[in-house]
Amino acid sequence: MADEGTVIRQGYLAGSKAGSVRIRVTGDSAALNIKSATLGIRRLEYDYPIPLRDAEELLELLCEKPLIEKIRYRVPVAGHVWEVDLFSGANEGLVVAEIELTDEDETFSLPDWIGEEVSHDPRYYNTCLVSHPYREWHDKPR
C-alpha cells in the first residue's frame, strides 16, 4: 500500500551531458540538487538544503519552464520501496515508477503493476520532460 504522497515541484538551472543542477521543493523543504547523467542505471546525486523562500524565487525567476510537478508515492514491495511519480502540469498523464537499489546487480521482485522498462529512454528523464513535455509526445506508450 502506498503512502499519502508528497508534492514535488522542481526546476532546472543548468544542464549538460555530464549532469544537471536543479531546485526541488518537497512539501515545506527545499534543496539544491546536483545529479549526474546516467552511469549505466546508476547516477551520482547530491542534495543541499536551501531556504524555501529562496527555492520558490529560483523556481519562479531562474528555472527553465515548464516546471516539473508531480506527486511521489512510496510503495513498499518485498523488502524494497518503489517511488511512483504521478506527473501533472505539462506532463499530466505520465506515471513513472523507480526503485532504489543498494547495488545495481541486486535482485528484486517486479510488481505486476509495473509497465515497460524505460531506464535507458532519455525522454523519461525529468530534464528532458522540461524541453519536451509528455503532452507533446506523439508516440505515448499505452
User: For this structure, what is the CATH class?
Assistant: Mainly Beta
| Average residue pLDDT | 92
DSSP strand count: 7
CATH H level: which superfamily? Hypothetical Protein Pfu-838710-001
Under the CATH scheme, the architecture is Beta Barrel
- SSE string, helix = H, strand = E? EEEEHEEEH
Shape verdict: globular
Strand content: 35-45%
End-to-end CA span:
24 Å
Structure description:
The chain is mainly beta. It has a single domain (6-136), classed as Hypothetical Protein Pfu-838710-001 (Beta Barrel). It is built from 2 helices and 7 strands, in the order ββββαβββα. A hairpin with a 3-residue loop joins β1 (6-15) and β2 (19-26). The chain is globular and about 40 Å long.
Lay out the secondary structure.
Layout: E1 6-15, E2 19-26, E3 29-36, E4 45-50, H1 52-61, E5 68-77, E6 80-88, E7 95-99, H2 126-131
Antiparallel strand pairs: 1-2, 1-5, 2-3, 3-4, 5-6, 6-7
Explain briefly what this protein structure is.
The chain is mainly beta and 142 residues long. It contains 2 helices and 7 strands, in the order E-E-E-E-H-E-E-E-H.
